[in-house]
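Why this split exists: single-chain examples teach little about how molecules sit against one another. For that reason, every record in the complexes split bundles all components of an assembly together and asks for one structure covering all of them. Below is a record exactly as it appears in the raw files.
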Amino acid sequence: MDNNLSENSKKPTLANALISQAELDIEKYSVFSKALTERPSLSIRTKIILTFSLFFALCAIITLWSIVALSEIEDKINFLETADNYLSEIHQARRFEKNYLLYRTNVNDALEHLSNAEKILSEKGKTIEKILGEKHFKTVVLQVKDYDNVLNKLSKTRDAAIISNIEPTLRENGSKMVSFAEDFVKKERDSIARMLSLSRKVPFFFLGVLMALMIFVAILLTRQLIVTLNRFVEYANRIGEGDFSPITPVRKFKDEFTQLAKAFNSMTRELDNRHKILVESHKLRAIGTLVAGIAHELNNPLNNTMLTASMLKEDFSILSEEEKLSMIDDIISETERSRGIVRNLLDFARESEANLNSLQVQEIIDDSIKLVSNQIKLAKIRLETDYAKDLPHIHGDEQMLKQVFVNLILNAIDALPQKGSIFISVQKNKEEEGYITVEVKDNGPGIPEHILPQIFDPFFTTKTKGKGTGLGLSVCRGIVRKLGGYIRVKSSVGSGTVFTVLLPTTNIPSEISSGKKEH
Amino acid sequence: MENRQLRIMVIDDEQIVGKRLKSALEKTGDIIETFEDGVKALERLNNHPFDIVVTDIRMDEIDGIEILEKVLAKSNQTKVIMITGYATVEMAREALAKGAFDFIAKPFKPNDLRAIIDKAAKELRKN
């Protein structure tokens, strides 16, 4: 009861209701916008920069490798040149060594060539050492020295016995020295060939890897973009259908789309406010229609009261006490009847913010039927209802739901010829758990298939100019979507139209609903 | 005979209307019969002629316009007065075009109706 007192003393007006609702909404939306922005940032720009940096790094690595490989090949070529010179010198030395051993000539020539070889070793030592490594270089130097020593020894003697004694050592050292060097030259030639062929292959391999990587990254990036874009298409469709719930964060990171989501949220907030005004103004139109019927209906009890009061006054002196009392009772009961007629309309017309409650949908439909009962009588339409037993409560707003059903029934009345009929049924939904189904069926002319998809669009109307705003069904859908339900239509020309409203059920028991209608 | 008794029928699906108009109109000495059901009223009209029929336009089974047509088809002497809760010009025009004597809009006072009935009675006496 306190609730009602404060409600009455506050006198909620349309403006007040909208402002307080807007304040609530700003709070609600700011929570979501906070949730959207409070994620770590990974923008699309960062992703693109990271990707391009990765590609650049890969290119840099391969370029560096090429430079290193080229300089290594250069070193090896330099080495080979030196090695060739060295080899030819020691080959010469050995040839003269053979000559000496055969004809005892030219030992000095051999020594000279050997000293040339030694000179090459000492001059180009660095180049050679770089390729051979310290150990092998020392071996080479030692081999040359050994050979040199033996050759020197040989040059200083003429004694055949000594010569033949030295000869095997000399031959052995010489061939060791030559074969070691030849071995190395061969190895290095092979190594250069290998490196050259590798240098030919690596760029192609690298191109392949780069291409695969680029394709992978491109697919990854575009898929992310497309998935997100598709989600926004879904949001837009949802908003178009009148569901103005804000966008909540889906991904772990925020990016440029977060800005878009925020813009969407502020847009839906605006749309939501406008929709509220639209719902209210549409309600005013519905009230206008209902008032005509109600004014007509009010004339009956008013007429009864006037006739009774007039006759009571006229015959006051001749009427018996009993007759007077009965006439006064008539006046009272007819006044009560008037109040009943007006009250239902007032309940419907009262401006108030959305008030979600646990409701019995049958009562709401009965009240809606009462509101339109005069339109039904005037159009001579038969209206039947069929409510399933033990229906669960639904979660919704009483006034908004009345607006939906009044609108659906008024639409049916407009569509029906005289003596048509409307059938309203309420059932638990068999396909979807947690919903109840309200069907408003008429046996009117039906809606042509080509305009069926448009009937929920705002400003779409088949009525003559000035008779309909084309907002009724759009507002209905907006209300039903807002309450978490669905509205569908099935119609075919000649066999009538069925509007199906699915409303979510609730387990919360109805609260203070009994005291609600007391004023 | 100047003041011969008139036979007046009142048809309205509101029970109180019949009850009050019966006592109000009987004062002039006329014979008043009231009906809430248009079908029964028409049956009665078939057996008994009435001078004046006062009928509500909007009723469930048969509406006032239909009663008007049936009454006039039987006797075009009968004066039919329409009661309308919907005093729109079209409704009145339709009723008058179809031969109604006059119409009266709800809510009305007994004297308003008496005045129209007086007028109808004068017309009747002229003939």
